[in-house]
Amino acid sequence: MLGYAGASLALAAEQPGCRLGWSTLAGLGNIESGHGTHAGSALGTDGTARPGIFGPALDGSDFAAMNDTDGGAWDGSAQWDRAVGPLQFIPATWQRWGADGNRDGVNDPQQIDDAALAAGRYLCNYGDLALPERWRAAIFAYNHVDSYVTAVAGYANTYAARAK
């Protein structure tokens, strides 16, 4: 949860009008990868998922087809894109929003601090996330499924309530 909280604090300083809570990032992280534990991965003490987390090839069979956008640099495939890291970034999205949340000089989608800050910046692009309609629009943009938005809200509310 520290990666989510750190990203929320960084965003409060750099984009105070966004008002993104850490619990939203935690909700995304839970759904996208079980906080970096998908398929036997774990976050190391450095916050990096090992082994790396990769979604299925977006070859049109189960999900929309997305031709390669990164030459396989982030997702290991030079034919099709795959979502990467604990917050499941498509390589082209990572190329635009990638961040260095842990300030080690590298923006790595497999590193939770980097991924959480990048996800936060992506979401903050939708404005003041304390407004329910802006929050919903931002989460829907992250994954275009209404049930996903509802699930993120549920987890975010649960995490926020537990923190009180």
UniProtKB/TrEMBL annotation:
CDD domains: Slt35-like. Residues 80-127 form the Transglycosylase SLT domain. Pfam families: SLT_2. InterPro entries: Lysozyme-like_dom_sf, MltB-like, SLT_2. SUPFAM superfamilies: Lysozyme-like (SSF53955). This is Transglycosylase SLT domain-containing protein. It comes from Cryobacterium algoricola.
